[in-house]
């Protein structure tokens, strides 16, 4: 039964993880807005999410620990995923080689944060529905 | 957890920016100072902070760190002041190369970057709180 509940949350969990990761990348861009030579990076959200949802891909990327003793426990495959980052092209060229466009970064940051929160609200509603059924 | 990392990234940027403001305050305060070294008086040389990307382990993203504080290479100012005890034979005095205009502009820029990072922190904090209170 709990397997099903897991499945319900699976998509939202993956989306939230990816949003959180993207938020981290954007915050790193904002933090390095004054660093000489820093190149602004981002991820292609659509491609990364389809990569994560593709179950075959997930199975292939499982990395297991080497067991040297039979008493070692099985390492659980964590939700690890490698993201492909892409550089952001900008028409603003600064003298020090920095390519961070602050306007773009801030807009994307707020945008990503709101998307994360909307995903969270969907999840919340699902939990509410479940509790409604459980309590009767 | 990616969202926790944002605290480190934005925090490091805030530390770096406040250090920059510190150096600017130091430059402005010492605009008329002289340094006594090896039996000679030298005018104060402006200092500049250089930022560098402080990448997280096995990652392209990261916060900011200060790679060094260098002496400003811009030339010293010569001022005609024959009554000054440090004046040379022709009556010129070598004074500090601190440029108050650049310092103040840099100060505003650093303060704004600091504020931008505080906004990033606020957003990340809100996202974490919303995630923790998903069942409420």
UniProtKB/TrEMBL annotation, chain A:
This is Flagellar basal body rod protein FlgB. InterPro entries: Flag_bb_rod_N, Flagellar_basal_body_rod_CS, FlgB. The gene is flgB. Keywords: Bacterial flagellum, Cell projection, Cilium, Flagellum. The lineage of its organism: Bacteria, Pseudomonadati, Pseudomonadota, Gammaproteobacteria, Enterobacterales. GO terms for cellular component: bacterial-type flagellum basal body, rod. Residues 12-39 form the Flagellar basal body rod protein N-terminal domain. GO terms for biological process: bacterial-type flagellum-dependent cell motility. The basal body constitutes a major portion of the flagellar organelle and consists of a number of rings mounted on a central rod. Structural component of flagellum, the bacterial motility apparatus. Part of the rod structure of flagellar basal body. It comes from the Bacteria. Its main location: other. Belongs to the flagella basal body rod proteins family. PANTHER family: FLAGELLAR BASAL BODY ROD PROTEIN FLGB, FLAGELLAR PROTEIN. The keyword Phosphoprotein does not apply.
UniProtKB/TrEMBL annotation, chain B:
Signal peptide: none annotated. Pfam families: Flg_bb_rod, Flg_bbr_C. Residues 7-34 form the Flagellar basal body rod protein N-terminal domain. It is found in: Bacterial flagellum basal body. Residues 90-130 form the Flagellar basal-body/hook protein C-terminal domain. GO terms for biological process: bacterial-type flagellum-dependent swarming motility. It comes from the Bacteria. Keywords: Bacterial flagellum, Cell projection, Cilium, Flagellum. Belongs to the flagella basal body rod proteins family. The basal body constitutes a major portion of the flagellar organelle and consists of four rings (L,P,S, and M) mounted on a central rod. The rod consists of about 26 subunits of FlgG in the distal portion, and FlgB, FlgC and FlgF are thought to build up the proximal portion of the rod with about 6 subunits each. This is Flagellar basal-body rod protein FlgC. It comes from Buchnera aphidicola (Acyrthosiphon lactucae). The gene is flgC.
